[in-house]
Amino acid sequence: xxxxxxxxxxxxxxxxxxxxxxxxxxxxxxxxxxxxxxxxxxxxxxxxxxxxxxxxxxxxxxxxxxxxxxxxxxxxxxxxxxxxxxxxxxxxxxxxxxxxxxxxxxxxxxxxxxxxxxxxxxxxxxxxxxxxxxxxxxxxxxxxxxxxxxxxxxxxxxxxxxxxxxxxxxxxxxxxxxxxxxxxxxxxxxxxxxxxxxxxxxxxxxxxxxxxxxxxxxxxxxxxxxxxxxxxxxxxxxxxxxxxxxxxxxxxxxxxxxxxxxxxxxxxxxxxxxxxxxxxxxxxxxxxxxxxxxxxxxxxxxxxx
Length: 305
Description:
The chain is an alpha/beta fold. It has a domain at about 5-220: Alpha-Beta Barrel (TIM Barrel). It is built from eleven helices and eight strands.
């Protein structure tokens, strides 16, 4: 069974044309950029900053297909299949398996205020629909249900050997630490990741990496942080984490349009966000220019494709 590689996996945005159509040629170009960037350990397609909630089911499937074809086995590739409908998540999961994805990741159904038992039933049906690796995605701030109990994950773990990991976006160290303790005690080697590159505080308590957002703009900076933590160079890791934190602080303003603005400033234009999301105003552009210049990112990172 596939296991998640330690490190930072990149999650591409969705490029759009000026008419808000998916730009599949740039999808391929962007996936190739991330795949060929030294330090990247995998690709996560259709993650939140890819605006999956604004895409049709057919668009999501085609982006997944273009991604798998572009990666061409060079890195592990995971498809985010989250949706409020269990039927749709099962459909997207089966599609991901059919096109050769290494795994899927499914968020707790958003919008609905589901109970813990209903969340378990949702994941159980999704996990049983495929044989490839599956991951759960805990995002209490983005779902009406709130945080998922560790007991739900433990029940799933007992039943599904293909349940290989989870991503926690609670941004709460007590929550993450309890997940890490409970789940890794139950199954040593079970993979737990954080959202964004909040690594310095979480790696010592079991975090194996993250799905990158800062890495879309400054991949070398985030990989340098990861390497410093793995080599226990704490004096290097601390200032690197502070830089990454400042970059993330600006990225979270008008996210994900801020990411697209920063990518354009780094010579990798990917078009606007699809409505209702804004496409980045002048304030966003000034913010991103400031943080890029403050950390000398245009000179220390690759410019362009």
